Structure to design on (191 residues):
């Protein structure tokens, strides 16, 4: 039986899972958790979560997002699902990130009922502590250095933006406040 955890606008929540792993949900986020004998699976349906994974090599911990599959054994990483991409930032340890088979179709292997943890068309990118990768419907970016403090600032009640388009900044603000911000001039979206 899957468990669903979610947060409202401006709410944050930390949940301890049955294996001792924890997930911290940012504002306006939703996950579905399904554990079985062979794997621990979490579907990030909306928003952002920081995962602190309890080590268990016999039961991999797999996070599904629209455009990415993230596999970890024991590590800490942040996954942010946005409208057109998924950003994976590793805080501790190492994860393998693959393109999701269902990328661009709004689903995930977990939601569609697939039990295969190898539902990926391309090779995995290995991302280590202090690194980040971005998955879109069409590709994974090259692994790059990450500003981990900025990526996880939300866990301390802060929002940090560096070189992001205004539309992404507005989307993030809208997750944290009931007052909706709107960009009325479409030319400003990419500023």
């Amino acid at each position: 039986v899957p468990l669903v955890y979610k947060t409202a606008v401006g709410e944050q929540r930390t949940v301890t899972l049955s294996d001792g792993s924890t997930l911290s949900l940012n504002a306006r986020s939703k996950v579905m958790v399904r554990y079985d004998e062979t794997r621990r699976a979490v579907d990030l349906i909306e928003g952002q979560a920081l995962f602190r994974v309890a080590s268990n090599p016999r039961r991999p911990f797999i996070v599904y997002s629209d455009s990415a599959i993230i596999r970890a054994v024991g590590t800490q990483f942040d996954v942010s699902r946005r409208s057109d991409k998924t950003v994976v930032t590793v805080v501790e340890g190492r994860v393998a990130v693959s393109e999701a088979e269902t990328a661009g179709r709004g689903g995930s292997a977990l939601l569609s009922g697939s039990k295969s943890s190898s539902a990926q068309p391309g090779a995995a990118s290995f991302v280590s502590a202090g690194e980040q990768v971005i998955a879109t419907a069409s590709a994974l970016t090259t692994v790059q250095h990450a500003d981990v403090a900025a990526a996880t600032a939300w866990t301390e009640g802060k929002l940090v933006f560096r070189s992001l388009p205004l539309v992404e900044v507005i989307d993030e603000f809208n997750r944290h406040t009931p007052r909706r911000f709107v960009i009325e001039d479409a030319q400003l979206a990419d500023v």
About this structure: The two ends are 44 Å apart (CA to CA).
